[in-house]
Specification:
about 325 residues; alpha+beta
Amino acid sequence: MLILFTEAQARLERAGVSVLGRLVWWSLGPNSIADDDLRRLAVEHGLDERFLPQPINPAGVSRRAVRHAASGLGQGLLLRKISETSEAIVVGLVQERPDEVAKNLDYELKGRVSFDKRTCELRREGSQVLLDEVERLYQRHLLLSTDDIRATITSFLGETGIALRRSGGVHFVPHSRGSELVALIAVVEDAGPNEVRTLGIFDTPRDRSVLQDAARRTLDDELKSLETELESYDPLRVRDSTLERRVTDFEQLRQRAALFQNVLGLRAEDLARRVLDIQRGLHGFLKQSPEERAANVPLPSSEPHPQPELETSVAGF
C-alpha cells in the first residue's frame, strides 16, 4: 500500500503539483541526555529553544530524588527533611523503633544528605545503602529522559502542526514550517536512539479537504479545552498570572488558525472571532478592581460552536 502511495506521490511531483506539507510520526528509544547537551544540539541545528523542556532546577531534582528513594521504604527507615535555607537542603535518614514498654517511638539519626544550592552539589554523611540510592537518583534525574524528548516534539507540533487523529501519533506540518521541522528531526535523532519519519502531502483537492477537516477539528477541540479551563476558575481567587498565561494560549491558538487559513484555505474567521472576544474579555477582567470582581461577573467565554464531522478518513492519504 505504501509503495502504491509513494508511486502516486512521484507522479504528482513529476506533474509539478505543489507540496502542502508533511505527515510526521516518530519512534523514541531510551533517552538519557544532559540538559546542556540538548540545548547545544538545538543551537547547532537551529531549533528554537522555546520548544525544549524548562531548564533543570538542581534543587528540585534533589527533592525528587529524596521522594523517589523514600517510596517503599521498610525496616522502619524514614527520610525526613531537617532544614531548608536559602543555601542548603538537609534531609535525614531516620531509624524508627517502637518502644512497647514505654508505649513510645524512638528515633535514631542514621545519616544525612545535604544539597548545596550555591554549588549544586549533593553531599552524604553516613554509609547507608539508601543514601547511595538518593545520590544515584539525583544523578539520574539531572539527565533528560524520553519523556522530555517527547515533550519537545509535542511542544513543536502544538505550535506548528495539527493532529490527524484525536489519539495523536500522526501530525501534519505545513510546508512553510519545513525548515524548523528539519531542525527538530536533527535534534531528536541526535539526542538518542530515536527516529522521526515524514511523508510529503501534495496539494490535491481530496488531501486539502481532509486536512481542512482535521485542522478545524483540532482547533475547535483546543478552543473547547481552553474555555472549559476558564469556566473552572473562581473569578475571586484566580491569579492574574494564570489568566495572563491563558491570554497567551488563546493568542497562540489564533495564530495557528491564521496559519492554517493561509496554508489550507481553512475557513476559520468565526473561530478567530470567538478567540478575540475571549481575549478582550480577559484583558477587561484583568483591569478590574477587586471590588468589581467581587460582583461575581463570570470569566468571559464564547458561544459554543458545533464541531464538523470528518468527511474523509485519514487513511485516505
